[in-house]
Amino acid sequence: MRIENVMEYDLTPALSAEIQELLNFSFPDVYPKTRNYFKQLPHLRILAFNEEDYLIGHLGLDYRIMNLDGEPVTVVGIVDLCVSQSIRSRGIGSSLLREVDKFCLGRNIDFVLLFADCKEVYLRNGYKPSRNTCTWMKIDTELQRTRGIGQEVMEELMIKEVGNKHWSEADLDLLGYLY
């Protein structure tokens, strides 16, 4: 298996189509069929390829400032981790998450943050659930328009400390969309 980091603006049309196909199969009846992102383009894609150079795993990274209890924190958000259905449970998702860990080393990043319905792979890789009251910009994914501001405790929120700051379950303003 080969893992590659690709900046969003460097995606070729062919690779973009492969990502779109993997996302559509991984998130059926949820993911927009006509694009390779859900709400917003990630900054970076971490991609796993098999020996035949076919895309078998994906995750997007979004870098931004958030406000945690009145203080700015630098966050990398994980977006759309997925692995080809035929080869799941072989450690590919964990390999992609380890690549995120390597990416964060020595960079101005305090936390890695994500929202997960299925938490097992993240728990095995050092992520912890958190019950922050979150504020975020709501996006209509079909029309690609802002719908307003949301605020609630998010049961799906998970974090990993990768810098020198410590996480608290205080109010969290995402200062943007919900991953």
Q: What's the quick description here?
A:
It is built from three helices and ten strands; from the N terminus they run βαβββαβαβββββ.
Explain the overall architecture.
The structure is a single chain. This protein is α+β, with helices and mostly antiparallel strands and about 180 residues long. The chain has a single domain, classed as Gcn5-related N-acetyltransferase (GNAT) (Aminopeptidase, 3-Layer(aba) Sandwich). It has 3 helices and 10 strands. Strands 1, 2, 3, 4, 5, 6, 7, 8, 9 and 10 form a 10-stranded mixed beta sheet that branches. It is globular and about 50 Å long. The two termini are about 25 Å apart. The mean pLDDT is about 95. This is N-acetyltransferase YhbS.
Distance between the termini: 27 Å
CATH class category label? Alpha Beta
Fraction of residues in helices? 10-25%
Strands, count: 10
Can you write the helix and strand succession as a string?
EHEEEHEHEEEEE
Radius of gyration: 16 Å
Q: Please tell me the overall pLDDT.
A: 94
Total helical segments: 3
Protein name: N-acetyltransferase YhbS
Organism: Paenibacillus shirakamiensis
InterPro entries: Acyl_CoA_acyltransferase, GNAT_dom
Pfam families: Acetyltransf_9 (PF13527)
Task: Sum up the structure in keywords.
single chain, Aminopeptidase, 10 strands, globular
